[in-house]
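Ticket #4471: structure output looks truncated?

Reporter: J.K.
Steps to reproduce: submitted the chain below (187 residues) through the standard prediction queue, then opened the result file.
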Amino acid sequence: MSVVLETAQRDPFDEDIILVDRVLAGDEAAFERLYDRYYDRVYSVARGILLDADEALDAVQEIFTLVFRNLKRFDRRSRFGTWLFRIAVNRSIQESRRLKHKHRWVELNEAVERPAPSTQEEDPDPQIQHAMSCLSAQDRALITLFYWQELNLQEIAESVGSNVNAVKTRLYRARERFREHYEEAKP
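Returned output as attached by the reporter:
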């Protein structure tokens, strides 16, 4: 009976599943459609966790490469988007840990010669940037998924591989830490 209810709750027409089947059958254009459909949201997750546009761009490419390589492992118990966000969150957190110890030294001549990056995004609020940079990658992931991706607690739980109650508690604590760091950055 639970299988019937679970099937009834799913969208009867899930274009993502059709595209996944087409990719698995060798249709490269279907993967391009999935890529185009989810690129902005995956970038937003990576950017929210890594706090650096260039690093986020690199991470997004790695994320989609992982998705392409492991698409046959997608077991369809969750929606494709949820599975993709789980990969995006995990890969971005791994990258964040790796970058934590990387020194970013740039020669003065190199910095002068570089053209100014053209950003399509608005300049972020410095207080928000400061508060986010003080948080752990896991806290940034929760805040990004909840506020920027506007996922509900169930979707976040599936994306981070946890249960709803744990996510609710962790999100509450992440918000509190964010608030503390935000207030200490006030001029």
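Triage note (M.O.): checked the attachment and the full token line is present. The domain at 12-100+123-184 is CATH 1.10.1740.10 (Rna Polymerase Sigma Factor; Chain: A).
Status: closed, working as intended.
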